[in-house]
Amino acid sequence: ELKVEQNPLFLSMQEGKNYTIYCNYSTTSDRLYWYRQDPGKSLESLFVLLSNGAVKQEGRLMASLDTKARLSTLHITAAVHDLSATYFCAVASGGSNYKLTFGKGTLLTVNP
Amino acid sequence: DAGITQSPRHKVTETGTPVTLRCHQTENHRYMYWYRQDPGHGLRLIHYSYGVKDTDKGEVSDGYSVSRSKTEDFLLTLESATSSQTSVYFCAISATGSSTDTQYFGPGTRLTVL
Question: Which of B31, B89, B90, B103 to mutate to test the interface with A (most CBs of A within 10 A)?
Fold first, then answer.
């Protein structure tokens, strides 16, 4: 059974600081997704990481994937209040019909 | 935004009653998924569909059934609702079942079972 662990689950940061969210998973997979969810809203796709060593950046967020370590990171640079949200990683597994297993999410609060 | 709607958006029902949630898409995507989201659990897959009348179980399928009679609609039925099924339900779609394909999520349905 695939397990996906995120840490930390809660993160309170000051504006302008840097931090990293970690996503570990238990079985071999080379497909990993990051989503953002604002309170009471749906999930928004941020990044799709499709191979070992993949790195993607959008604004102040950068995601990377190390399939050998079964680890993905979401790095936040110079945080701003608008980044406050819950961030989920999800790992794809399965044969012809891929299914996603989600982590529990990291609630990020960026304080002025 | 992906063309996904869910109905109803909010529902309160009583234990033991059947409930049907609807997901409708305008993208003509082949794959559709139902998830539930609970505090401390993230999102968990209930059922998914890989074509009309083709469905399969996910991680937490007990107490739920699904149907897909046409490409654009995927129905989730709680046969006899229980309080443990109080949750937020999200529908998602993807064009293919490939792991390179992104899943896009609907707005969610908040279900309360009293």
Answer: B103
Task: Report CA-CA distances (Å) from B12 to A13, A54, A94, B35, B44.
Answer: 37, 44, 35, 18, 21
Residues in chain A closer than 8 A to B100 (CB atoms): 31, 48, 50
Give yes or no for a cis peptide into B107 (omega within 30° of 0): no
Contact B100 A48 (CB under 8 A): yes
Q: Which residues of A touch B99 (CB under 8 A)?
A: 29, 31, 50, 92, 94, 98
Contact criterion met (CB < 8 Å) for A101 and B59? yes
Residue B83 backbone dihedrals phi, psi, to 5 degrees: -65, -30
**SS3 of A61-90:** EEEEEECCCCEEEEEECCCCHHHCEEEEEE
pLDDT tens track, chain B, 114 positions: 569 999 999 999 999 999 999 999 999 999 999 999 998 888 999 999 999 999 999 999 999 999 999 999 999 999 999 999 999 999 999 988 777 788 999 999 999 999
Residue A112, chain B, CB below 8 Å: the answer is: no
